[in-house]
DNA sequence: GCTCCGTGTCGAATCGGTTCGATCCAGACA
DNA sequence: TGTCTGGATCGAACCGATTCGACACGGAGC
């Protein structure tokens, strides 16, 4: 492998001069600079990342902690990851991907060994065990997902409260007075996925304000269980006219369930989901939905993280907690209630 | 940050002794070893990754090149990535994730700068521009996907020829004599996704052997286009009794299409797909399918790569090209033809 | 009593960069 | 003529590990 020493020799200068010629941190004569550049091109020199990291204490690598817990919804996770990865590269950083189950240990490992200049945490729980470790680390961190305590960290998330209110208001405006909300599996909530509560509580609150009956339930993350749950919910609330889905697997399962019951959307049932547009297009879901914008969140997190990395010596800027405002993407799956034939959801064939 | 010098001082030994005590590469007295270990624990010492990489020329990092091209099917990609990442960690390696559009440039960057000990390439095309760069690099590489020229590299892929034959044979055994095969978008083929041809050609060949009429077509990767294509195919081949899908988006769109046409599987139409079990469960697809096992492929690639990294000085083992045998997972979406009512596929409501 | 040997430890070199301080030199200025 | 200034370059130190060669010491063998 060709080193800066080889370049210096080829250009007939010292190693330090070659280094300054390349970095531009000191004035170097035009002539020498060109000789060095020529040598670099001829020899095909690329600085050794480890050596540079050792000398500068900068790795130009960002750690991305993505936990694939049970019931995790993979496609959404992937969109977060791509948002993070693409943005990082634009800003000159590479991504160290960590998918270890024991996120806390992994975080300690990559920060202590100084493999990364900063860290993005996905899937942050209410009381995330990784946070104390991140706060103690010398590198800055950015979160995607709102924990209970945001101190000392930059946090980005969708405004799930507002999402819940928008769903309810939209249905109310159309005339619906009884709705069903299907959330993520209870697992997710227990594990600290606070966003499930945030959406559900806000929806319940808003339903009360609007005078709407709102039935809530957890859905599974897999077929066939989630399909059964949807059937059961429609069975037990026959007068509900609208369905709110904060559960991607339920959204994916719904077309089949509707088919089995012979229901048509929005004539028989109005539906609003909460997932990304990308997801909707790929999986043929034509339900109106709250855009969850995972790529935008990943992008924002990295931007802020890099800003903090690169200004780490200046006086600390204040930490930010930023929410993306939800947007309802209308795909025509909602309408005024009552166009249904018989006033109750068709039974599924047993 | 605490260095090995701090540990050595705390233990009252030299830096080299501390290093040997930790690595065990020379005999060290029990007593000193314990003093060093205590110091490590007390001070919370973790070796600096950059310094270690510089000294040992080993980074313990594997590069993962995942290109997200247009029409790429994200969930499958994610499963590959997880297979690679989890296996790497088990073997002591971290993952540098590269999603840059210009894969060749990215590959050169990470190999030249010696950020990685080896590389896994996903999504390898027939005539992949990254391969010459990988061959010229000092680090070994493993491919997931079969290129035209496998020389000097370890290659892993599903046996798509066999997959095509299995699909056709299964349908033939049930009595089907006219089938439709929907492949990935033409984009993918033009870009060098040879596996599309491999499956299709083998299926055509086998259909000829069995005396089956096989209609082939490219499907899009998105709704609503892919749904329209499915409708058009069913319209123009009304006597076809079975559908083969080498296109995940088509599989995801099919339930809705069937619903719109009032078709039931397998009574009206037999269906076999080609995707992973994980995908099927998450997206509520109850079609029988050829398991594409992305996680297994990722795992195999990393295993082989690590073997090669760690034995790089010994005489080069021969390079391997290994195919996973496809397995048909029966989810009950195939049956003998002819249970259909009217002998043609119902029209969709216009 | 002397050499020989294995065990345990240390000092110094090395990996490949960056960066600080010093030096050299030419031109400006008093 | 001597001093000052600033541009251009070099040498050496440093980042934090690993590793090679040397060496001290105590016991075995002659």
TrEMBL record, chains A, B:
<dbReference type="InterPro" id="IPR046335">
    <property type="entry name" value="LacI/GalR-like_sensor"/>
</dbReference>
<dbReference type="InterPro" id="IPR028082">
    <property type="entry name" value="Peripla_BP_I"/>
</dbReference>
<feature type="domain" description="HTH lacI-type">
    <location>
        <begin position="2"/>
        <end position="56"/>
    </location>
</feature>
<keyword id="KW-0805">Transcription regulation</keyword>
<dbReference type="InterPro" id="IPR010982">
    <property type="entry name" value="Lambda_DNA-bd_dom_sf"/>
</dbReference>
<dbReference type="Pfam" id="PF00356">
    <property type="entry name" value="LacI"/>
</dbReference>
<dbReference type="InterPro" id="IPR000843">
    <property type="entry name" value="HTH_LacI"/>
</dbReference>
<dbReference type="GO" id="GO:0000976">
    <property type="term" value="F:transcription cis-regulatory region binding"/>
</dbReference>
<feature type="compositionally biased region" description="Basic and acidic residues">
    <location>
        <begin position="339"/>
        <end position="350"/>
    </location>
</feature>
<keyword id="KW-0238">DNA-binding</keyword>
<protein>
    <submittedName>
        <fullName>LacI family transcriptional regulator</fullName>
    </submittedName>
</protein>
<dbReference type="GO" id="GO:0003700">
    <property type="term" value="F:DNA-binding transcription factor activity"/>
</dbReference>
<dbReference type="Pfam" id="PF13377">
    <property type="entry name" value="Peripla_BP_3"/>
</dbReference>
<keyword id="KW-0804">Transcription</keyword>
<feature type="region of interest" description="Disordered">
    <location>
        <begin position="331"/>
        <end position="350"/>
    </location>
</feature>
């Amino acid at each position: 492998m060709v080193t800066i020493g080889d370049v210096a020799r080829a250009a007939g200068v010292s190693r330090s001069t070659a280094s300054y010629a390349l970095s531009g941190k000191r004035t170097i004569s035009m002539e020498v600079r060109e000789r060095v550049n020529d040598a670099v091109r001829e020899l095909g020199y690329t600085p050794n990342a480890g050596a540079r990291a050792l000398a500068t204490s900068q790795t130009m690598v960002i750690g991305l902690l993505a936990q694939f817990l049970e019931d995790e919804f993979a496609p959404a996770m992937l969109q977060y990851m791509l948002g993070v990865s693409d943005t990082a590269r634009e800003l000159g950083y590479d991504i160290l991907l960590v998918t270890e189950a024991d996120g806390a240990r992994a975080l300690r490992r990559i920060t202590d060994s100084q493999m990364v200049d900063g860290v993005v945490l996905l899937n942050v729980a209410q009381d995330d065990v990784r946070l104390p470790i991140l706060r103690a680390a010398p590198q800055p961190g950015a979160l995607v997902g709102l924990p209970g305590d945001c101190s000392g960290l930059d946090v980005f998330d969708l405004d799930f409260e507002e999402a819940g209110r928008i769903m309810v208001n939209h249905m109310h405006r159309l005339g619906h007075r009884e709705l069903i909300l299907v959330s993520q599996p209870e697992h997710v909530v227990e594990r600290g996925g606070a966003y499930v509560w945030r959406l559900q509580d806000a929806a319940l609150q808003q339903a009360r304000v609007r005078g709407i009956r709102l039935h809530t339930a957890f859905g599974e993350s897999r077929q066939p269980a989630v399909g059964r749950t949807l059937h059961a919910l429609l069975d037990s609330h026959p007068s509900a006219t609208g369905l709110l889905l904060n559960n991607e697997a339920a959204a994916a399962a719904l077309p089949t369930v509707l088919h089995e019951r012979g229901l048509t959307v929005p004539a028989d049932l109005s539906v609003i989901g909460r997932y990304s547009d990308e997801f909707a297009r790929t999986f043929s879901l034509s339900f109106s939905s709250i855009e969850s914008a995972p790529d935008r969140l990943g992008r924002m997190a990295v931007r802020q993280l890099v800003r903090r990395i690169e200004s780490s010596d200046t006086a600390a800027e204040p930490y930010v907690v930023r929410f993306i405002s939800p947007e309802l993407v209308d795909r025509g799956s909602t309408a005024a209630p009552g166009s249904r034939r018989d006033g109750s959801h068709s039974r599924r064939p047993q």
